[in-house]
Amino acid sequence: MKRLRLSGVPFFALAVAAVFLLPRFISDFRAQQFAYVGIYLIALLGLNLLTGITGQISLGHGAFMLIGGYTTAILMSNGPRPGEPPLELAGHLFTNDMRDIWTIPLAGLVAGLVGFLFGFPALRLTGLYLALATFAVAVAAPAVVKKFHGFTGGGGGINLFDLETRSQSTSVTDPVTFESKDLGVDVFLGINIPSFNDWLYYLSWTIALVMFAGAWLLLRGRFGRSLRAVRDSELAAASSGVNLARYKTLAFGISAFYAGVAGSLLAIATTFVNPDTFPITLSIFLLVGVVVGGLGSLWPLVFGAVFIHFMQIEWAQRIEGVIPDFIPVLGDVDTDAPGAPAVAFGVVLILIMLAFPGGAAGLLRSLRTATRRGYDRVR
Amino acid sequence: MTTFFQQVVAGLGSGAIYASLALALVLIHRATGVINFAQGEMAMFTTYIAWTLTANHGWSYWPAFIVTLLFAFGLGVGIQRVVIQPVVNTSVLTVVIMTIGLVLTFNGLASLIWSAEVRAFPSPFPNETWDVGGVAISQQDVGTFGVVVVLVALLWAFFQHTKTGLALRASALNPEASRLVGVRVGWMLAIGWGLAAVLGAVAGMLAAPTIFLDPNMMQAILIYSFAAAVLGGIDSPLGAVAGGLLLGVGLNLIGAYVDFVGADLRLPVALLIILVVLLVRPAGIFGKPVTRRV
Question: Which residues of B touch A347 (CB under 8 A)?
Answer without folding.
Answer: 101, 105
